[in-house]
C-alpha cells in the first residue's frame, strides 16, 4: 500500500496527465487496503487470512462527455494507457447535461480536522487468535449453546486519496478492529442460530471478546422454543440491532439520485413533517473515531454534522453534484466514491436521537406486542414505501417477554411507520448506523 504522500502524488499526477492529454476536467481516486483475520471453530484454528489491494481510478470529461476506469498497475505505461483510453472513450460518449466536477467555489480548504481514525498498533495473528478463542469460549459457556459456527477476529487499515483538476487533493487514513461470533443452541432436538459482532477504529474501543461472546450466546439461547402467534395488528418494537434497518430505508428514500429519478416515496416531501415532532435524525461525518468518519467527501467538498430530519421535518437530501444539478440545489457534501466510476451519495455516521422512555417502559405500556430482534428478506418498495419483511423475536405482554417467535412477517408502509415511530432512550454509538429501540404502534403480523 502507498504512503499518504505517495497516494496523493499518484492521483495528482494522473489528473495532470489527463488534462495535458486534452481532458477539459478530470478527477482521480486511490484506494489501498490491508486486512488480517483469524477464524476459529470449537477451539480449533480454522484459517488465517491476509489480503492487500490497491486501485487507482480516473474519470475524464470532454465537455459534458465522461468516461472512467480503474487499474491496479501503477506503472508509467499503465497510467499513460489509461489516460489515452479514457480520452478516446469520452470523445465517443453521449453528452450528459448533469456531468461535471463539484463547484470549485465549494471545495474544502485549509487543514483537515484530526478525527483520530488511526490506531498505529497492528495486532499479530497470535493476538487475533487469542481474541477469537476468548470470544468463542464465552459464547460456548452459555448454558444451551451446543456448537460454534465460527468466530473471527480481524484488523484492517485503509488509505483513500482523491485529486481534481480544479484544485482539490486530499488523503484519509483509517484502521479497524473487529470480532464476530456465531453459535448454535439446542433444546429437545430443536436448534437456533444467532450472532453478535462489533467493530471499532481503535482496539481499546472494542468490547472485551468475552462480552461479545456472551452476547452472542445469550441471544441464541433466548431464541429456543419459539411458538406461533395469532396473525393480526400488533405494536412492534425493533431492538437496536435491527432498528438501524429503518434508517437505511430512510437514507435510500432521501438519496438525491432516487429523488431525481422520481423513484422515492419521499420525493415531494422536502420541508414537510415526515416523522413526529421531536424526532431528529443526524448525519455526523466528523465524529472522532467514527466508523464512517471523514474530513472531506468523495468530491472534495467540506463535510459537517447535519440534521437530515429536524423536529420531524425533512431538511436535506443526500446529493452528489450530478444529482444536485438535476434537483437544482447545491451538492450536500455527502458524496461517496471508490476508485471506479463516479461518486454517489449516502450517509456517514448516521443515527436517530434518543427518546425519553426506556424500552422497558415502552413494553409495559403497549399491552401485547412483538419485540423484533432479527429480520430476513428485502421486501421493501422504495417507490411506494410498502414494507414486508420476515422477522423473529419475542411476544411481549404487559412488559414481560412471554416466549420467542419466529417465521413471522411484519408489514406496513414506511410513510406511516416513520410518522408514528418513537425512539427509546437506549442509543449507543457502536456502528456506522445507530439507533435505539424503536416502537411502531401498529403493524400487521402474519406467518412467513
TrEMBL record:
Residues 231-446 form the Metalloprotease TldD/E C-terminal domain. It holds the Pfam family PmbA_TldD_1st. It comes from the Bacteria. Residues 122-224 form the Metalloprotease TldD/E central domain. Residues 26-90 form the Metalloprotease TldD/E N-terminal domain. This is TldD/PmbA family protein. It comes from Sphingomicrobium clamense. The lineage of its organism: Bacteria, Pseudomonadati, Pseudomonadota, Alphaproteobacteria, Sphingomonadales.
Amino acid at each position: 500500500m502507498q504512503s499518504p504522500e505517495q497516494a496523493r502524488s499518484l492521483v495528482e499526477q494522473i489528473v495532470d496527465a489527463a488534462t495535458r492529454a486534452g481532458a477539459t476536467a478530470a478527477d482521480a481516486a486511490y484506494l489501498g487496503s490491508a486486512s488480517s483475520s483469524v477464524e476459529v471453530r470449537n477451539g480449533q484454528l480454522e484459517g488465517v487470512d491476509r489480503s492487500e489491494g490497491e486501485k487507482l481510478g480516473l474519470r475524464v470529461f470532454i465537455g459534458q462527455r465522461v468516461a472512467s476506469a480503474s487499474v491496479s498497475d501503477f506503472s508509467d505505461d499503465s497510467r499513460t494507457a489509461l489516460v489515452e483510453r479514457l480520452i478516446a472513450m469520452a470523445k465517443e460518449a453521449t453528452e450528459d447535461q448533469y456531468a461535471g466536477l463539484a463547484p470549485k467555489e465549494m471545495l474544502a480548504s485549509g487543514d483537515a480536522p484530526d478525527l483520530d481514525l488511526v490506531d498505529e498498533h497492528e495486532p499479530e495473528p497470535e493476538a487475533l487468535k487469542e481474541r477469537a478463542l476468548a470470544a468463542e469460549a464465552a459464547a460456548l459457556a452459555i448454558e444451551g449453546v451446543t456448537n460454534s459456527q465460527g468466530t473471527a477476529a480481524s484488523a484492517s487499515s485503509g488509505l483513500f486519496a482523491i485529486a481534481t483538476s480544479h484544485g482539490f487533493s486530499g488523503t484519509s487514513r483509517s484502521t479497524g478492529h473487529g470480532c464476530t461470533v456465531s453459535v448454535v443452541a439446542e433444546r429437545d432436538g430443536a436448534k437456533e442460530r444467532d450472532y453478535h459482532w462489533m467493530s471499532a477504529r481503535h482496539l481499546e474501543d472494542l468490547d472485551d471478546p468475552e462480552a461479545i461472546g456472551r452476547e452472542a450466546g445469550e441471544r441464541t439461547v433466548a431464541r429456543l422454543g419459539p411458538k406461533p402467534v395469532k396473525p393480526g395488528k400488533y405494536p412492534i418494537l425493533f431492538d437496536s440491532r435491527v432498528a438501524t434497518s429503518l434508517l437505511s430505508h430512510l437514507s435510500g428514500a432521501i438519496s438525491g439520485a432516487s429523488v431525481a429519478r422520481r423513484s422515492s416515496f419521499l420525493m415531494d416531501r422536502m420541508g414537510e413533517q415526515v416523522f413526529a415532532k421531536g424526532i431528529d435524525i443526524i448525519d455526523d461525518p466528523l465524529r472522532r473515531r467514527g466508523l464512517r468518519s471523514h474530513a472531506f467527501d468523495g468530491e472534495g467538498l467540506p463535510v459537517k454534522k447535519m440534521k437530515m430530519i429536524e423536529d420531524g421535518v425533512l431538511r436535506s437530501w443526500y446529493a452528489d453534484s450530478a444529482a444536485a444539478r438535476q434537483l437544482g440545489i447545491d451538492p450536500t457534501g455527502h458524496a461517496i466514491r471508490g476508485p471506479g466510476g463516479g461518486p454517489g451519495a449516502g450517509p456517514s455516521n448516521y443515527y436517530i436521537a434518543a427518546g425519553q422512555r426506556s424500552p422497558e417502559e415502552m413494553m409495559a405500556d403497549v399491552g401485547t406486542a412483538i419485540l423484533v430482534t432479527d429480520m430476513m428478506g428485502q421486501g421493501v418498495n422504495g417507490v411506494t414505501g410498502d414494507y414486508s419483511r420476515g422477522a423473529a423475536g419475542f411476544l411481549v405482554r404487559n412488559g414481560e417477554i412471554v416466549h420467542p417467535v419466529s417465521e413471522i412477517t411484519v408489514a406496513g408502509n414506511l410513510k406511516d411507520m416513520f410518522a408514528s415511530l418513537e425512539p427509546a432512550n437506549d442509543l449507543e454509538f457502536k456502528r456506522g448506523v445507530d439507533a435505539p429501540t424503536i416502537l411502531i404502534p401498529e403493524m400487521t403480523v402474519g406467518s412467513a
